Structure formats: structure tokens, C-alpha cells
């Protein structure tokens, strides 16, 4: 029997919990499955402990376990910060995020489901850990532009320097929010490609269009 454990994003959880809620990456240096997990909050600790518990059971019983660690998951019905972002853009609110050059990995719901299904049936997936992603990383500025295109309402972005935004966020006691908007967090999905021959089946633009269409349908 094969059991998979998938860490989906939760309210305000735009990072992979097992690696640590406030961890980030430098652009071009993504997390990989070989990096040592270092969870720092109860959410991340619980997910990592669940992984360890399942792996212990697997070692004692022969049960096959697959752990999938996704970053922020988006798709029709998305909630939390991603939903707020779509609301901002749809209302035409000016956003001071027009000069952000970070790099973040997201994963479309359809891509995550496809990876899960692949792991369920691929013999090489047994007892492995995989990172999930769309195969294309985006800056916050780029993501907002694409969300605007998907909504049919171009994003109104003001090119404020990142340093100014970070200083302002610190003054307001919102360093955590600034990190989510301005920081980089990339993951390497190369292991899934090499071991499972897996490629994300849906593009970022296609999933954003599905997400936007669902959002507009509910906004009548």
C-alpha cells in the first residue's frame, strides 16, 4: 500500500512548512529535497513530524510512503493572500509593487494533483520526497501583471524601490508581510522530472485564467 503526504498551503502560509516558515532563498538558489528541514513554527513542525512518523512506520511495516512538499497552491477557489491579491487588481487599486525582482515558485492545483496521481502509480516514487512547482518562477511584479491579464483588468503598479517598502513595513511592524511579498522562495522540481519523468501539465497562464474565471463568476 502506498500513502502520500501532501503539504498544501494554509492561511498566510506561502512557504513550505518543513523548511521553516520564515526561510527564504536567494534568486537562483532554490530549495531541493536534499536540504535539511528546519521548521520554526507549530505548522511546520507538525508537518515535518508527520513525515518522520510515516517514514518510521514505513521502515517497520514495508508500507510505501511518498511525501510531497508544495509551495503556495493556487487555482479556482483559492483563498487567503492570493484571493486578496486578485481583489486588489480587480478593483484597480494602485499597488506599490511595480519594481520587485524576487523569484517565487508557485504550484497550480492541477499540477499538484497531477504530481500526486503520478506518485500513486509510479514505482520509483515509493519512499521518496518530492517538491512541487509549475516549472516557472515569477517575481511579484510579474505575477501581478499576469493576474491582471487573466482578469482582463491590467494591474496598476507603482515602481517603488524594494528598500523603501521594507523600511515602511518595518516601521509598521509588518516585516513578515514584506517578506511574503518581496522575498524570494524557489524550489527545484528536478527530482520529480528525473525520477518520475514528470512535467507540469498546465502552464501558469492557463491556471491563472481558470482561477480568474472562477473568481469573476463568484463576484457577480
Keywords:
220 residues, mainly alpha, Rossmann fold, three-stranded parallel sheet, two-stranded parallel sheet, 8 helices, 44% helix
Report on this structure:
The structure is a single chain. The protein is mostly helical and 220 residues long. It has one domain: Rossmann fold (3-Layer(aba) Sandwich), CATH 3.40.50.720. Helix content is 44%, strand content 9%. It contains 8 helices and 5 strands. The strands form 2 sheets. A 3-stranded parallel sheet has the order 1-2-5, with helices on both faces. Helix 1 links the parallel strand 1 and strand 2. Helix 4 packs across helix 8 and helix 5 runs antiparallel to helix 6. The longest helix has 20 residues. The chain is globular. About 4% of the residues have low confidence.
Radius of gyration: 18 Å
The end-to-end distance, rounded to whole angstroms, is: 45 Å
**How would you characterize the largest beta sheet?**
3 strands, parallel
Number of strands: 5
Q: Which consecutive residue ranges, at least 5 long each, have pLDDT under 50?
A: 7-15
- Indicate the structural class: mainly alpha
> How much helix, percentage-wise, in residues?
40-55%
CATH architecture label name: 3-Layer(aba) Sandwich
Overall average residue pLDDT: 88
Number of domains: 1
Order of helices and strands: EHEEHEHEHHHHH
- Strand-residue fraction? 5-15%
Which term fits the overall shape? globular
Separate helix tally: 8
Give the CATH level 1 class: Alpha Beta
Secondary-structure map:
Layout: E1 2-6, H1 42-61, E2 64-69, E3 72-74, H2 80-90, E4 106-108, H3 109-121, E5 129-131, H4 140-151, H5 162-171, H6 175-182, H7 190-196, H8 204-218
Parallel strand pairs: 1-2, 2-5, 3-4
Helix pairs in contact: 2-4, 4-8, 5-6
Amino acid at each position: 500500500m502506498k500513502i502520500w503526504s501532501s503539504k498544501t498551503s494554509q492561511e498566510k502560509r506561502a512557504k513550505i512548512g518543513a523548511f521553516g516558515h520564515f526561510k527564504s532563498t536567494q534568486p537562483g538558489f532554490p530549495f531541493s529535497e536534499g536540504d535539511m528541514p528546519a521548521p520554526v513554527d507549530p505548522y511546520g513542525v507538525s508537518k515535518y513530524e508527520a513525515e518522520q512518523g510515516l517514514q518510521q512506520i514505513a521502515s517497520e511495516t514495508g508500507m510505501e510512503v511518498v511525501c510531497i512538499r508544495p509551495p503556495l497552491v493556487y487555482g479556482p477557489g483559492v483563498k487567503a493572500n492570493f484571493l486578496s491579491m486578485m481583489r486588489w487588481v480587480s478593483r484597480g487599486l494602485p499597488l506599490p509593487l511595480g519594481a520587485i525582482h524576487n523569484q517565487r515558485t508557485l504550484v497550480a492545483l492541477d499540477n499538484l494533483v497531477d504530481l500526486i496521481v503520478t506518485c500513486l502509480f509510479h514505482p520509483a516514487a515509493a519512499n521518496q520526497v518530492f517538491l512541487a512547482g509549475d516549472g516557472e518562477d515569477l517575481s511579484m511584479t510579474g505575477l501581478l501583471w499576469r493576474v491582471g491579464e487573466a482578469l482582463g483588468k491590467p494591474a496598476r503598479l507603482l515602481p517603488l524601490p524594494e528598500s523603501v517598502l521594507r523600511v515602511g513595513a518595518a516601521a509598521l511592524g509588518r516585516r513578515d508581510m514584506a517578506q511574503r511579498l518581496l522575498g524570494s522562495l524557489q524550489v527545484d522540481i528536478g527530482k520529480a522530472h528525473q525520477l518520475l519523468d514528470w512535467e507540469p501539465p498546465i502552464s501558469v497562464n492557463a491556471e491563472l485564467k481558470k482561477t480568474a474565471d472562477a473568481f469573476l463568476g463568484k463576484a457577480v
